[in-house]
Specification:
Blueprint (H helix, E strand, L loop, with lengths): L3 E5 L3 H12 L3 E6 L2 H7 L5 E4 L5 H5 L8 E4 L5 H14 L4 E4 L3 H9 L5 E2 L1 H15 L2 E6 L4 E7 L9 H4 L1 H5 L2 E10 L11 E4 L14 E7 H9 L2
Parallel strand pairs: 1-2, 1-4, 2-3, 4-5, 5-6
Antiparallel strand pairs: 7-8, 8-11, 9-10, 9-11
Length: 231
């Protein structure tokens, strides 16, 4: 059975979250008070509903207690977010994840007992900081203040060599998690849309690096920086 997720609030964050979850096979219910936003997404998710989520009565009719997760993605004001979250708690929703838009908002949500909080702006800023600091990094996910998982295009002098020859762990203290390889290139007229990457699974020592491969690496930031500086 696919994961059933309701996304309340279809701003930039909520809209993209709903679409990405749908692409990953989730059954998504998208909710917003703006009928135009609901109309825009209604053919791309399982269910799309236009209603004011700050009013508990209409929320109760949606069967949200049966959803695996309800994400409060409202970003325009934290009052609507808090009212919606309180209604979801009274309805008995089993798992609530709330977007945070300010320190005060975060504190109030925690006082309400909401522990799963999302700070999309802060996470985007952190990822961009990693990209700027590490230069060639395409994506970065910080696991702690010391360790991260990053995606970086294989440097030219890596191409044609096996993973054994690269000695990433011995030389840099890095672990190669997997490799993403271009399977289908996007067209010029479609601005790259349609491009598809294939994940190669657990790397073997004899696997050969190809031009354009994306290396998914785990390690300390200073070690990743050292590898990139020598690339």
């Amino acid at each position: 059975m696919s994961l059933r997720v309701a996304v309340i609030g279809l701003g930039h964050f909520g809209l993209n979250l709903a679409l990405h979850l749908t692409e990953e096979g989730c059954e998504v219910m998208a909710i917003d008070r703006d009928a135009a936003k609901v109309e825009m997404i209604q053919n791309r998710v399982a269910i799309a509903v236009a209603l004011d989520s700050t009013e508990q009565a209409p929320l109760r009719k949606l069967g949200l207690r049966e959803m695996d997760i309800v994400v409060v993605a409202i970003g325009e004001d934290f009052q609507s977010s808090l009212l919606t979250t309180a209604s979801l708690q009274e309805i008995g929703v089993k798992r609530i994840i709330s977007r945070v838009i300010s320190p005060v908002h975060e504190r109030l949500l925690r006082l309400m007992g909401i522990q799963e909080l999302v700070l999309p702006e802060a996470e985007a800023a952190r990822a961009l900081a990693h990209q700027l600091l590490l230069g060639k990094v395409q994506k970065a996910f910080e696991l702690s203040s010391d360790y991260s998982i990053v995606e970086v295009e294989a440097p030219p002098h890596f191409v044609g060599k096996t993973i054994r020859q690269l000695q990433l762990r011995e030389r840099y203290g890095l672990n190669l998690v997997t490799i993403k390889r271009l399977e289908q290139r996007g067209g010029w007229l479609t601005l790259g849309r349609g491009e598809r990457m294939r994940v190669l699974g657990v790397p073997t020592p004899e696997m050969v690096i190809e031009a354009g491969d994306i290396l998914v690496l785990f390690g300390r930031e200073q070690d990743l920086q050292r590898m990139l500086e020598t690339a």
